[in-house]
Amino acid sequence: MSLFPEDIHSAAAAIIRDFAAARLMVSAAESCTGGLISGALTEISGSSAVVDRGFVTYTNSAKTELLGVQARTLLRFGAVSEETARQMAHGALFRSRADIAVAVTGIAGPGGGSAEKPIGLVHLAAKSRSGALIHRKMLYGDIGRSEVRLATVRTALEMLRLLLTH
Q1: How confident is the model at residue 38, as a pLDDT?
Q2: Coil, strand, or helix at residue 51?
Q3: pLDDT over 80 (residue 166)
Q4: 69 has a pLDDT exceeding 90
Q5: In whole angstroms, what is the distance from residue 112 CA to residue 110 CA?
Q6: Phi/psi of residue 51, nearest 5 degrees
Q7: DSSP E strand boundaries for the chain
Q8: C-alpha distances in angstroms, 161 versus 12, 50, 77, 142?
Q9: How confident is the model at residue 165 (pLDDT cuts 50, 70, 90)?
Q10: Whole-model pTM over 0.85
Q11: Which whole number is the average pLDDT over 75-103?
């Protein structure tokens, strides 16, 4: 039995299998998911060969201190932005032994949204050491905090698989 829904468990198992076969490692930088991506991956037996580390950077200072996100980026664009997600992915990649890193930052709700940045807005970025970079802006809507977080995990796992094939 898994802590996660079957689709997430299956996606995480496929990532662990395929990354292990390719001898690649992954890291995750998480804000709104609070470690769920790392949790989904480490739920799988054999994940220690693939998962290097996870960063839970819920505050702006944690994003700056642990991942090197620039303070001016946070001031200009905010924590929930493409620019911040990209810098989080870069920091997770280069502050780990991972070959591919994924980063997420968003507004899971029920509060914290605005007209410009509504509840359910999540920015995700995945980056590989070869320089490939994917960004996704997701508007999940006000579907509930847990559902926004789980939807974000699904998207993050999909992005890791995409970069594996690049």
Answers
A1: 98
A2: strand
A3: no
A4: yes
A5: 7
A6: -90, 115
A7: 26-30, 51-56, 100-106, 121-128, 133-139
A8: 10, 13, 28, 27
A9: confident
A10: yes
A11: 98
